[in-house]
């Protein structure tokens, strides 16, 4: 069989961080590396780093990274003997593997038959039941009649979880809390599943209310050996997508680890598995575990396993693909310390995690400046400063992976590293990751898959700010303003910047989320300066507190802010009206405006809703003219294979829609005219 052929050239049929990561190991093993790219990625990092790169086609994944013939042809042209698929794209596509088999190219992954056995969630469940792997109670039959599905759901008992049989990545999946919501959820899931997978079949499972997601890394070679490389806890998820992962799973016992590990290897052997695979389980509070699915590829979160085992899983994959035996036996594998991974996405947590695009004006991490040990921190990224983040692909920019001697130490390192990440130009979820990673319940490893939902109130709570944060933000804003005005001190200005009251500036600060609200959630900082530049001290008054303050710029965006003799090193900048300050305890964003000058800060209530990004209109949910309350859903858009609901900005009615279901809209297009109540 072709999989035992040695090869000296590896084509990586992927992009972004995983393409870069795979090529790193391939190079270290002495292999020549070939990248493939779409027009949107002609100058992407994975292309720059490869020995050779071959164009696949236009930006749309369907016409490039997902195009089997184009990838096979690229391997032929470059003389690649093997293809690593990464994750996503063609990694779990049996037809692709068959095409490679026919072309005599090694697929770095399992045989097509194993992918087929696990590719469909319903079929996989049937197979696992035969192999004696425990399953969540549910329905995974072929009959997809609405009434029958409903009857099955009723029988299982609510809440149930609807899942696309062909699904993955959390798409086409919905919790149904009660019988009354079943039909609507079924339709939504089918729509999403059709769009993402071209398939509408659903399965139903009992929805466990407090399970943890614990998955086992398995590895099999083509000689019949199989091992498990322990588990990862991926319970912290948003919309069923992993956000933070760790290994080992907190409070795992040796006995349970062995039991789950052996069940996972049994599952892999049942389907004749070869290569790296992950068997995902739900672990219930009582310690019982249930098979969810097997991912027949390298997972996004594989680095946490690498960190605790000291193994390079891509090297293992390549060796197995060359026909070698597994590098280690089960009893040679051990766990050292603890590891976390945080996924950095280009998305805006303040806008319901809408994917963000733009150009990364800065993407860097100063390990030394932050006092981090390079052995303990790994940033797997597919981007660099200057790179564009487009709307065509998954919005994950990078993964931050850390290691510590124990969980507490690894967590402290994670928080420090998150603060050291300097990303500008594109909105990311970094602050959200910091809020998760500094959360008390996360520190206490009080985990289950509803962690984010459960702690929504604290994770998304309107922030309370300390005097220090207000003081720091007011100085950072002023400092930037002064820099923009090309003067060291705003008090030196002689134009309109100068104040009516010469030595006093008043700054109002509030949570950016409430910048347009008409309430008095603002803090006012009165800043008094001195003209003498040698004495850069300012006097700040906030409420009835007065502080002496100074700001010293350090390298890059780092500054030192000293308040009453207490000096702190932070990263700080001003993006338009928002001041951003980052330190290991989290990110502070404050809407900043001067209230001694003309007030440009506030805007009228919006009378139009614009498309937050390029996408398709899925459904209009109200009739024009019908009265709606603030927050009610008005229309559904789909972008990046996820649905986004546009809601009413105020009480009022929709005057008109500018698009119909099925229409394509561009970012910034006016979707509808909204008439707020007087
Ligand atoms: P996908 O392939 O789309 O990632 P999975 O079947 O792996 O979907 O499920 C993803 C996540 O959804 C799990 O990690 C878990 O958090 C949650 N989940 C799945 N099945 C259940 C269930 N029966 N009960 C509760 N949560 C579930």
TrEMBL record:
Coiled-coil stretches noted in the UniProt entry, renumbered to this chain: none
Pathway this chain belongs to: Lipid metabolism; malonyl-CoA biosynthesis; malonyl-CoA from acetyl-CoA: step 1/1
Domain Biotin carboxylation: 6-457
Cofactor: biotin
Domain of life: Bacteria
SUPFAM superfamilies given in the database record: Glutathione synthetase ATP-binding domain-like, PreATP-grasp domain, Rudiment single hybrid motif, Single hybrid motif
Keyword Transit peptide set for record: yes
UniProt domain Lipoyl-binding: residue ranges: 600-675
Keyword rRNA-binding found: no
Residue intervals of the ATP-grasp domain: 125-322
Catalysed reaction equations from the record: N(6)-biotinyl-L-lysyl-[protein] + hydrogencarbonate + ATP = N(6)-carboxybiotinyl-L-lysyl-[protein] + ADP + phosphate + H(+)
Keywords recorded for this protein, A-Z: ATP-binding, Biotin, Ligase, Nucleotide-binding, Transit peptide
GO molecular function: ATP binding; biotin carboxylase activity; metal ion binding
SMART domains linked: Biotin_carb_C
Function: This protein is a component of the acetyl coenzyme A carboxylase complex; first, biotin carboxylase catalyzes the carboxylation of the carrier protein and then the transcarboxylase transfers the carboxyl group to form malonyl-CoA.
PANTHER family documented for this protein: CARBOXYLASE:PYRUVATE/ACETYL-COA/PROPIONYL-COA CARBOXYLASE, METHYLCROTONOYL-COA CARBOXYLASE SUBUNIT ALPHA, MITOCHONDRIAL-RELATED
Subunit field text: Acetyl-CoA carboxylase is a heterohexamer of biotin carboxyl carrier protein, biotin carboxylase and the two subunits of carboxyl transferase in a 2:2 complex.
Protein name: Biotin carboxylase
Gene source species: Halomonas urmiana
